[in-house]
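Catalogue entry: protein
Contents: sequence, fold tokens
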Amino acid sequence: MEPNSEGRQRDGQGRHRRPARRRAGLGRDPETDDGGCRARREGTGGAAIPVVVIGKTAVAARLLRYTEKEKAGGTEPRVLYSEGIRCRVPTAEREFAAVRRVHGKQSAKRKVPAKYELPEPGEVATHIRRARPNGRKYWAVAAGSTAATHVRREGDGYVDEIQAVHVIVSFGLDEVNPDDPEQVRRAFEFVTVMMTRLYPGVQMKLVGQADGLGTATLDGSLGRAVFHVHCVQNAVVAERMEVDGQVWEPGRKMSGALTDIARLRERADEFIAQHGAEYGVEQKLPSVAEQTAEKRRTRDRRMATKGEISNHDIIRVAFEASMDDPRSVDLEGFVEVMSEHEVTVNYRVSRAGKPGEKHAVSYRLDDMKAPVRGTTLGDHYAFDSAIQQLEDNASGQERERRPELQRAGAPKPLPVPTAQELADAQAVVERLAREERVAQAEDQAAADFLPAIIEDFDAATEAHRLGDFRELARLANATREKDARQRTRRARATAISSPDGTAQAQPGIAPEPRQPAPAVKPASREQVEAALEEAIAPAKAESDKMIAEYHRNKEAAKAAEREQQTQQAEAAPQTAPERQPLFGVSLADLRMRAQATREAAMNAHKPEEASEGTLETETTVGAAITGVEAPPAAPRLNPHTAAERKRLQRLRAELVEVEDEQSHEGPALGG
């Protein structure tokens, strides 16, 4: 459970949103922004047991935000408690959407449902409204001799699927007094446990509130607010669960027993009967089946609307009066007393003496054409219940009476604290107030410390050491006033220098000091700078010393290196380096080999005289030029070919280039 952001309970001042009845009943969803539907107004107040209402919405995010949105003009916190089931309260909106996306239900659409309307002139009616045994209405095609009354018109287009189911549980003032934090806490805990049990696999967010417009009392004034809990449920099932023997897999949309008004009423009744005593909650209204039976007949509802008493209600009143008669200790006596109230009781046994024997009673007034079954009037008037009540009368025990509509009583009284409890509470409040004031003073001192140092370094540090927050505030305010004056001067200077002579910025306004301070001459900024210089002087001297030592060591290393180079140069021999021929061969050898090559070329016109000597000479010259020994040449069969002549021309060109290079390099080598 998560209390409201201010960590306190409301004081109970508020307005009532809807009345309260002593049962966990359901009503059709009205407007979700109204906080739910209003129950039947009876008496002068609200309900005594939680009233549960249900609704649906296609925009879950809007409903989730509404439950925690503060109302304009409110003087009290709206949210008293909040709780998330399978989600966190701050991130419920995103987590709801994540579950829908995982199961492919985000932004899902559905076809617009059909409508049933009265036929236009010339149209033929085809459908009729029928009712199931449980009272639920549905449309069906008229068959047989039944006359149709409406026509079916198919829906056009698509609309958004339902994203959230909205359940509201409210308590009457006589059950939960909003002025008592303990009662509010227990009520919210009860609703949280109940909704978790009723919807074991549904993602939901619960928010407890105590506001509302209230229910008008008999004198026309607004009633007091009642505590109620908004439960916003994701319409997509988050975890696998089983409800009423039916398994719901993750990703399935909530429907059927999960949203059916009658089934939710019955399941809430069962939970209250089993666990309500643990939270001080009891059931005092008729069961769902009893209320359904009393409202089933159209004639009964019509007569009740006119303020008349129907035949069924007359029989119910006669039944209660007869059961209170001392003679009603067995069935015979009860039948006799009922006849005095002009009600005939018919007792019938089916399958007598056989397995599955059944007993039933029916009731009929003199002016009724047919009797009405006890089960039709309600379980309280059926055979089994009537016999049990007669046996209780015979044994002197209190019989089970017909649950009546409960009128809200006076608000549940608050526990009266003792003098010691009041003293303890006052001490706790004073302690919390002191701690809060100290915390605020420390926070303000931390904010004032830096401006105070700028004003007077020594005074600020001393005040901070001693915890003198007033002195820190005085110094900080002095700095702020100076800054404000500087901003004002800059604004005026900007206004003067602007082309149109108007101010480009509004002049700053000096803030009022937090605490009054005597007029004293503030310390100058030069003193602050001097104090800072004095504080960093030792560190600066040490760094200068380290830098000087580094430069000395660097210069000494350079001097030693220069001296070592000088000594090596003096110790080296003073002999000229021996010149080596270029390409590893002398110029004379190259000239001689070139001459031999020319002679061999001139004698090449004699094919028979071509010998290995010529080839050897050419190979030698090529090796001399390239520095690499050439591979053995293939025998020349015909030296007069064009290819041979071109090769010789290339050799001559290479020799000329070598001679030119030798002539250029000669002076450099001293030749």
About this structure: The mean pLDDT is 76. The first strand starts at residue 2 and ends at 3. The chain has 17 helices and 17 strands.
